[in-house]
Design a protein that fits this description.
By secondary structure, this protein is an alpha+beta fold. Helix content is about 25%, strand content about 25%.
């Protein structure tokens, strides 16, 4: 990855949302206006939107609240945390460094140039607009004990957002968060380990906080961010709270399994008692969502019978299809 030190310094100066002249920026960074302009193009590649006005200089279209390790760490009793502004992927960063990590180690980033979601999808990750967080966890009981883990992560993220004033957050089986029936956040759980051995897990969450429409042009589904919903959340506080609550609840999950989380899931279930279609490969099963079972399977009522499903994805379907 190319050196990002100068673009990051530029962002730190421009984060206030005010105009800064090319001359001023050049003096601060010890380079020519032409060089400044070149680095501004990197900011554009990162998804940052800015104005260039003759006689005034450069300004981000809105202020950016940067992640600040010095603000996050005092709020996190267990300090195992890396704040890395620019990464390929927070999940991949932990996977690559797993050999040296203790269970509960976390990573947050401002920007991912290779962020990923489930099933090989790209996770659009513009700079400073959202929160990209991953955590490593070791489950001594092995891969089978990880059943339902993505649901636990969804519950924790929803509860933390609610505690910070974000009302109306919902969870969608098996690994998304929704607001107003639009996708707000996604969860990716990646697991390595063989039966009989400990499971090494990296769990990631991407939460849309203030992502703009132009930055999200590549997204092929309905989405929403907290800012457009009139909800302001402090990114550093959110990062710290999520890390703390994930560590507490992952230990609880280790000890008690999913059973102690099913009632908490029900409080946030976006699709409970609603008509849905379950997509499993090329197969489509229509039914009514009836929550989850003790293993995290989707309970789907179809033709008067309720059956648990452990794979696939669901989406709403029109009431007229009933």
């Amino acid at each position: 990855m190319k050196d990002t030190s100068v673009p990051l310094k530029l962002v730190s100066i421009l984060a206030d949302g005010q105009f800064h002249s090319g001359e001023q920026l050049g003096e601060l960074l010890g380079m020519s206006r032409a060089a400044i302009n070149k680095h501004m193009q990197t900011l554009k590649e990162w998804g940052l939107e800015f104005l260039t006005v003759t006689g005034k200089g450069y300004s981000l279209t809105s202020p950016v609240e940067l992640l600040n390790e010095a603000m996050i760490l005092p709020q996190v009793p267990e300090k195992n945390l890396d704040v890395v502004p620019v990464l390929g992927s927070t999940n991949q960063y932990l996977l690559d460094n797993m050999h040296r990590l203790a269970s509960g180690f976390a990573c947050v980033a401002e920007y991912q140039n290779a962020g990923r979601g489930r099933r090989g999808r790209v996770w659009v990750s513009p700079f400073g607009a959202n929160l990209y967080l991953s955590m490593y966890w070791k489950l001594e009981e092995g891969p089978a004990a990880a059943m339902g883990l993505s649901l636990v992560i969804g519950i924790v993220v929803a509860e933390v957002l609610q505690s910070l004033g974000a009302e109306g957050i919902k969870v969608k089986w098996p690994n998304d968060l929704y607001l107003n029936d639009k996708k707000l956040a996604g969860i990716l759980v990646e697991l390595t380990g063989k039966t009989g051995d400990a499971a090494h897990i990296v769990l990631g969450a991407g939460i849309n906080l203030a992502m703009s429409q132009p930055a999200a042009a590549a997204i092929d589904q309905q989405w929403i961010n907290l800012q457009d919903a009139g909800i302001k959340v402090d990114r550093n506080q959110l990062a710290a709270s999520l890390i703390n609550e994930l560590r507490v609840n992952l230990r609880k999950f280790e000890q008690e399994g999913l059973s102690s989380f099913t009632e908490r899931w029900a409080k946030f279930d976006n699709y409970i008692n609603r008509p849905v279609k379950l997509l499993i490969g090329d197969r489509v099963v229509n039914g009514i969502a009836r929550g989850i079972d003790h293993q995290g399977g989707l309970l789907l009522e179809h033709e008067g019978e309720i059956k648990a499903w452990v794979g696939g994805e669901i989406s709403l379907r029109p009431q007229t299809n009933l």
